[in-house]
Amino acid sequence: MRCRLCFAAAALALCAPAVLDCLAAQPLTAEEQAGQRIYVDAITPSGEPLRGLVGAGQMPLSGAALACGNCHGADGKGRAEGSVLPLDTNWEYLTTPYGHAHPARRHGAFTAGSFGVAVNEGLDPAGNRLDWTMPRYALSRSERDALVAYLKRLSAQTDPGVAERSLRIGTVLPSGGPLAPSAAAMRAALLAYFEKVNRAGGIHQRRLELRVAKDFDAAKKEFSVEPVFALVSPFVSEEEAAFGALIDQTKLPAVGPYTANPQRVERRSGLAFHVLPGLADQAAVLVDFAARAAKTSGWRAAIVGSGASPFHEAAEAASRRCEKLGCGKIVRIGSYAGPLNAAAAVERLKAEKREQIFFFGSEEEFAGLLDEAGAALDAAWRPRVYAPGSLARAALAARERFDGEVFLVYPASPAEQAGAEALRELRSEFKLDARHEAAQRAALAAATVLIEGLRRAGRDLSRERLVRALESLNNFDPGGFAPPVSYGPDRRIGALGGYIVALDRERGLVPVSGWIALE
């Protein structure tokens, strides 16, 4: 025993000064890995789902619902849920020599044997019955030993990317193609912001380190070799569905500016948080704004665009919003087999006297529609056109014919001064490129939200705590880079709404609304 203690002391000395880093870096043994699967995934070493009895009625249950980590947490410390307080399952705590005192019972320290009795039979070391909220499992002796082996390592385990004095954060930004200049500006802004945080002491005495992958495939490879704790502002719009699946599979939290995924992610839980709404929600904002104006001018609307994703999903969202607001019958004009036929679309719009046109398609298609419509304008037909702000360039090219009659939606206010001032200060201090302001502000909005989540999660950091901290954000101001954000257990889009700007012949794009919320 003395030799073992000496060996352990020597090992710790070799780890100095970062003892916790060294311990956490040691790989789990096969037995410990088996215990981890029981604790985290409710899978036994044989590959079968964990089985147990739940509640006072002892209802049989199996599978993920029985995972220990669901209640006791990834770090084993337990979190109160209502009147239920799951206990700390770290082995150091369970085997405390002086035992444990609970409100209605007292007992001595656990051993491997008494722990097995508690897990399987619901009795503490003194024979007191545990609360019925604690499931009664059916662990074999080898399964119990594997779980105990993992609990002995639990306190030394940290989530990937977390070290005693550093914290690795990843991002995915393309290094080639048309998006490369914007991505480079985002990378520089993120590095500058992280350095500013580090100069102020980092996050709970940990220095932030940014790891950048050039694409989805590179991220899968690089972040498996050098894991990151979380992602910030990943730029993977064309592979978002696959990327979301990877995030869920690897339990990797991510905070991004907005989602290109057409699904309404703000109403489902998950590890991906978004600061701003996607195209579908922006479409709903356009309908809200147009409906208010139509109260005095009538409502004869049409949705125009191609059938390509995500434009089709945005059109569907606009149609649903219109139905909810009672806008009346709204027609759909567009192609599902190829590009929009602008001439045919305009011919039908004018024949049916459609006065409100919602467009969701490519910039080239929008330019074609405005060109055809501009040529067809007359005293009897001057429609209002509503489109996403990403099509501003095509709109500005048509300003002579559509003065005051084209409205664009933006997820963040283009006139926000606080964010502009903060970005100017960062540019001045770190010599950042003055171009690509929208991309830089979007990246910094996500970074500001992530940093706040990390601060609230505390020094004893875990991915689980970060997610819970992000969910607690309510009306949080991300430095003026975006509108105030709020999250929750069933909400993953922080600022759900948008701003409307109008096309002006002389002044270009002019804000014509405040924040239009979709709550």
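(the above was protein one; protein two follows)
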Amino acid sequence: MPRQRVRTPNAPGDAVAATVPGLATLTGSEQALLSCLQQAPDGVVVIDADARILAFNQTAEALWGLSQAQVLGRSLGELVPDEARAPFLARCMRQRSDTPGDGYELQLPGNDGVQRWVSVSAATVPQQPAPLYVVFVRDISAERERDAKMRMLSLALDRSDNAIVVCDPQLAILYVNAGFVHMFGYTAEEVRGRLPSSVLPGVGTDMQAVRLTRERVVGGLGHQTDLLVYRKDGSPLWTTLMANPIADADGGIQHYVVSFTDITQSKMHEILHKNVLDALVREQPLVDVATLICSEVERIAPQVVASIISVDGDGRLHPLASPSLPTAFNEAVECMRVGPTAGACGAAIWRGKQVLVRDAATDPLFAEYRPLVQQLGLGSCVASPIKSSGGRVLGSFALYYRDVCEPQPWHLRLIELCLHLCALALEREQTKARVHQLAFYDSLTGLPNRVMFSARAEQALAAAEYHAFPVAILFVDIDRFKRVNETQGHAAGDGMLRDIARRLGETLSATDLIGRQAGDEFVLMLPQCGAEQAAGVAERLLLALADPLVVGHVTLHPGASIGVAMFPDDGRDIETLLRHADLAMYRAKNEGGGSFRFFSADMNRMAQERVALETALREALRRDQLQLHYQPQLHSQPPYALYGVEALLRWQHPHLGDISPARFVPMAEECGLIDELGHWVLRQACRQMADWRLRGVPVPRVAVNLSASNFADAQLPARVAKKLSAHGLVPSDLALEMTESVMLSNAPAVLANLRQLQASGVRLSLDDFGTGYSSLSHLHQLPVNELKLDMSFVRDLEHSETARALTTSVLRIGESLRLHTVAEGVETEAQRAFLSWLGCDVLQGFLFSPALPATQLERWIGAHQADPEAAAPPATSGAAPH
């Protein structure tokens, strides 16, 4: 119950002066001053030379949770912790009368159990025969919390790798964090007061994007964009800019916060790798791919001009792409023969290594092309040979600068990325003539056949090896396809294969490879895909393939088995990977089909364990290796009679040991075993209840948890009735527990099932009430007999006012709807006493008994009948527990 505050009936100026020595002789003005102190916003305590309390104003009462009457005459030291008493009194009783004593902070335990930080200062009041001391106490808990948050925020900002800028309403810079200084090279003093748009843009910055950002944030909207900006040293930097206005309580904009994230590396990979590989997979012409590479490079690095040149078998050059150079460049290069002085590109191809020209106007490599260099305005150049996976030079990739300069390090990394992409493009073009002579596509499905898939896969594997990316190979085999051909004919089988090919293509991304291997076998390659991602893709494929399929007048229900092999762990060439994926597929098929398996047990241990656990659960269901334990539910009032028991599922695996329901029940939901699990629990609970009835064990009823899918089964009422009848039970012997998700189910069968079950006499219980989707509009329509208060509320009853309030609300709801309320998870006497005092009908938890096997429960019931209060201690008094 809440503590009642005691207040003095008279003003302290009268009561204190009349009763405390030393204040009785106060003048009228002094009495008025004392009355004013009583109303002061800070706590005011007046003490004598012995530290005895002479006055204690209302704020002090609130801080300590004590009334003035409770503290007058006591030592002030008694109101603070022992360890703080000596320094506290020393501060309060300084012999100074001119100014209050220096501020002193300490943590003050209030009588209400709340710890407060307070600031204490004191002043001396000279008088005879001994001075008085006035102690001022101010609650600074909120200030300390705010200061701590500000320190934490400041630390977080300065530790962030992102550059963060705070601007005033005129967009002038007020603050930059350490990340800004590190990213851009400016000190805070150099940029304070300036506009970000006057500091960071450069020659390649998209000023239209800058203007759009400014317009949106000034208009009160947040904005995000990718923007090229420049460091203090002039080097470019690709960033993701996020700008947001910060408004005050009245809606007026007070500040703007702008953050910059360095995406230079990811921009190179995102733009080049993804787009170029996508163009290659889509069989774009070589010139288009080369132009795409050059254009994207120039967009990433606006200060360079890119060109790609191929070389034929006779050593002659052929420009493929140079979108920013005039036609004079292509005309001069076309059919030029490679050699040690054939410009930077010709020399790089001839030497087979990178060539750096710091000044094209003076370098001997351009001696024969001075007029062209002057015409094009070229300064420096970096030309690199494009080599095949076998080391053969296929052409050159060059970056030209308008000015004489040293290539920046990130430009050299950009060149490395482009060389690999150029090699893929050129190699593909050189093998295209041979590849097109083969039957590249499967005539039935339109997918690449084995030859085309392998060729593309080898190219992708070369790219993956260069960048150390993982690749997943999936081997997909259709389950029971032979039976479809045999029973429905080859036309139906062909239709099924066409639809499956379409579903596979719709499930994968543009960069993934897919092919038909043979018959009902398909193969897939997922670039830049780790084992965990591959498992997710395999699960999505299984779901996509499992949808019913109409072929002609027949509805087919396809399924598949999938094997997964990972590059490079399971093989470095496509043939090895396909063979290993095929072996993994057969393992999935031999274990029942409709699933996937990884070839490498070491690399995919977690996936293998999940598959093994699912298999073990199926086996446990098939062999009745699960058990039910039963937890008693007791009436909360004397004589604490047994209300019923709840059946709880347990699994003791012979090799894996105890497996928690929290682990295998969600897995059962995911793999489609939850309905079978619910039927097993219901069957076993009814069997045990029938045995108890036969032997006279006084168990009033057994409660069984069922899943949402169980309640959506239109046959559930008939199943329940059949099981009760088969075991000679009546409906009132059984209670079915549902979660709140059942309450909100849109399945039409759910509400009809619940009404039919309740009408038959089966009790219905709403489990974990208040933790999920509680809705009174649904609850009053739902045919339930009891509510189960979730254990999370019960657990917090002793220390959470919110939990106590919510618990009270749930109990009042149950009371108003005439529903029994069962509180689960009762573990302490304090919890039991509080729930009993509130009128909760039924209690369940470790305070009384854990879930027990049937034989142990029977012994517990016998002991409880002999001494009911041993299992449920009696409540103390009728007063509310604290």
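Reviewer note on protein two: Confidence is low (pLDDT under 50) at residues 1-22, 96-101, 872-880.
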